Amino acid sequence: DVKVTQSSRYLVKRTGEKVFLECVQDMDHENMFWYRQDPGLGLRLIYFSYDVKMKEKGDIPEGYSVSREKKERFSLILESASTNQTSMYLCASRRQGLLVVKLFFGSGTQLSVL
Amino acid sequence: QQQVKQSPQSLIVQKGGIPIINCAYENTAFDYFPWYQQFPGKGPALLIAIRPDVSEKKEGRFTISFNKSAKQFSLHIMDSQPGDSATYFCAASQDKAAGNKLTFGGGTRVLVKP
What we know:
The complex is a heterodimer. Chain A is an all-beta fold. Chain A is built from no helices and 11 strands. The radius of gyration of chain A is 13 Å and the shape is globular. In chain A, the strands form 2 sheets. In chain A, strands 2, 4, 5, 6, 9, 10 and 11 form a 7-stranded mixed β-sheet that branches. A 4-stranded antiparallel β-sheet of chain A has the order 1-3-8-7, with no helix packed on it. The termini of chain B are far apart. Chain B is globular and about 45 Å long. In chain B, the strands form 2 sheets. In chain B, strands 2, 4, 5, 9, 10 and 11 form a 6-stranded mixed β-sheet that branches. By secondary structure, chain B is an all-beta fold. Chain B contains no helices and 11 strands. At the A-B interface, strand 5 and strand 10 of A face strand 5 and strand 10 of B.
């Protein structure tokens, strides 16, 4: 089974801090995604990456950046954390393919910004 | 603006009941409609999916009904069990669009009482 591992389950940071959320997948998937999950809003796409060093903005990229230097690792960066970025962050990966859309998710990182 | 609207936000049923979750979409170019199931402390996992060339799909106790003209689809959980208690997300995507990104609904928390 595909394993998508997120480095932290819970994280507490202060306003203005630079925050790194790390995600690693072990199935050589080309595509990787970062979502945030908020009650009533479902999952909203922040950034995604088709392959190494490639990135595309999702629906809510403001305040975030990403890095994909290796195929298995996709990092989400909050340059200056704010309280409205308190949320559950989910990483996902997927094999590249026209008709393949099954996403494999990590267990999430609950980030609190105080 | 949510492109996929999901209702209700929460649902409580007795064991053996049939919870029904509804989703409506706006983009007629969507051509893939999955449902994801999320247990507490876990990431979402693909449950069942349908394409618009069929009106119904069953996998075990889970059934998707699809109404292309109304741009609606729904999930039925037959003979529901306490182990089905989870949050369910509908989603939609365009296979041939760049990235075939999934757009998720807001989620429905289902509680099945013993």
